[in-house]
Batch of 3 targets.
Target 1
Amino acid sequence: MTGGASRVVVVTGATGATGRATCAALLGQGHRVVAVGRDESSLGALGDELVGGDASRAELLDTRVCDLRDGDAVRALADDVVAACGRVDALFHLVGGWAGTDRFTDSTDEQWRELSGNLVDTLRHTTIALHDALLASGRGRVAIVSAAAAGAPTAGNAAYASAKAAAETWLRALADSFAAAEATPGSAAVTGVVKWIGSGRTATTPAALADWLVGLLDTDAAELNGRRVELWPTTA
């Protein structure tokens, strides 16, 4: 592998486009990957796609089924992963979701519950459950992918933009916890921001996000902690 030593990286939302690209990039660099998703069959397909017949890759990939909206399930998952791997060096939280409306007043409680559950609650549960392990790593990295909409909400995306903004606020609080650590400094929490994910001229591709995420592992924590990094193309 290139760069630093091998890391243990938990990738949540692993079966989405960005999750798949990130898992592949991490495995390509020789890192151990714990790929977490909600659907067992999708995780099985991901494992087949990433490993193929490569026995060495099979040893580096661990797929885990978990509903990250369930705090008890996430705590159990975290305990199991730390016991199996001995440590956790990074959490790339890539759980997504989107919903919009035609008018501000069309936003519903159901829409808010779905978006806040996927975008905020899953992040709360995973960062609390893995906080101490990431801190103990001394080189822990936590990253999320947010949206430009969080800073420029519209009437039609009020719930989505608000949930993204809440996730960013939560991650800044995590960054403050990392910054306050005295016994084992060196961990960082950072937010990458996109306009949208895809292949259009203003989009950020899953491959570009994966490259950015993997690069965080060997970037100094002081350069990352608490930062909000714009990741869309600069020439569109």
Target 2
Amino acid sequence: MSKIDPQQFLLIIGSMKSATTSLFSLLAEHPEICPSEPKEPEFFSKHQGHRKEIARYEDLWDFDPARHRIAMEGSTGYTKFGERGAAEAIHAYGIRPRLVYMVRNPFDRIESHYNFMRRNPDWRRPITHPDLVQTSNYYLYLKDFGAVFGPENLLLLDYDDFVRDPKQMANDVCAFAGLPEMAEIADASARNVTEKPKSELERTLRRMAPGLVSQSPDFVKRPLRRAMEAIRPDKTRLTPAQRQQITADLAPDMARLQAEFGVDVARWGF
């Protein structure tokens, strides 16, 4: 590493659709934190299509040792289903980061994850697909990263606590990172909020003509977008039968999450 010490890294590793973008944005206001560009480089992921292709991990930051103490990134792909091994890859690269992991009601997270993915014209998986459900195996990922980096370098946060008091949670992370608190935060509004999913017609058009909207002139683009938004369906919700299936799938992980990390999973129905 040229300018960043191996212990100066802070990684928000998940879970996806649990306010990690909002938390990242708040922490990026801290004068001693240097945020990565982009927020989710996925440098250590194997299967994330939006992975940032760069030769050196440290090139993600415009890090100034004179004023920055922490280099922060927020790749939730490190704790998605199919990315087991990210902890070992991070360790092998030579950094020793502090890690932040946020848990959320698994059913709400899965619904948000599914509706987010439906923006992709090629997404065809059901809401009960392992890619979505097993990303809510929170204990599994906490165990993986804790085993590699030690539990003292892993901060477990709760989505509901963040919604109630985002400033306090941001300052909890600052304390964890050894930084002074932020007296004020500029904007605590939600970021990366899942919009209504695209209609089947819109998905088909985007698949057949990817640049139809973005490459159209403004006088065509604006009414076209309004028309597309008007026919978007409501967000998909889990049926009782699907919730029952997911409950059975996640129950072992949830039991360990409560036993070893003290998370009250009963409030989620486990």
Target 3
Amino acid sequence: MELFQYPYMQRALIGALVIGLAAPALGIYLVQRRLALIGDGVGHVALTGVGAGLLLNRSPVLVAVVVATVGAVTIEMVRARGRTSGDLALALLFYGGIAGGVMLVGLSDSTSANLNAYLFGSLTTISPGDLTTIAVLGAAILVTMLALRPALFAVCHDEEYARVSGLPVRTLNMLLAVATAVTVTIAMRAVGVLLISALMVVPVATAQQVTRGFRSTMAAATALGLFAAGSGVWVAANADTAPGASVVLMAIASFGVVALLGAAWRVLRRRRTPAAAPAPEPHEVVLR
């Protein structure tokens, strides 16, 4: 715990905790819409923004927010109009985004180390300005996801029913796309664009094993995300491992533990439940 006396470790912990709360709060809607991998696609587009920021000597995070938002809105428009399949659109995001990012970083004066910091995360290099950006945008994402929970749930669960009910479906879909782009970009410094989808999806998948309702699943997912972020930073500080990878591995470990405990509980419950008495055979029925 002595390492957390240093300001850079305190900033790393606070940044990770903010991402641990915001990412699952958004991820539950993406899982509901079966778009669990869209974070990877938007992350690759954000990488192009990072390269543009490094090339233009601008803030890579802020440029990535703009570029990722444009990419996410574009893919939502393509999906809504049905001009191409969701898989193809995500593939375009994957390949075009990472190719553009690598090319732009190569044209700039930056080294590959700068690119790795965004690919795999670099919590310990978060500056006070980066932390302010992460905290403000993360809080905005969390508040928005909580405040609009009924409407967003309706759109994600049954889009046609939501449209008939009078909800602004297109606006809400665009809001989710923009929120995804913002969450991915602020999480780049925490877990990296290659791992952010795990922090969006894994806590939700873990919570779904032990909860029933949407509200309880959301609460459990954010709690699990908070635990994975805090414990991951602690493990990284003590074992000298990559913080982003440690956070994701803690989230996956939580999933494994909950899955094993759930399976053991189901086996135990089946053993304790008495077997139902077999129905009498036809020849055993006595007529009176």
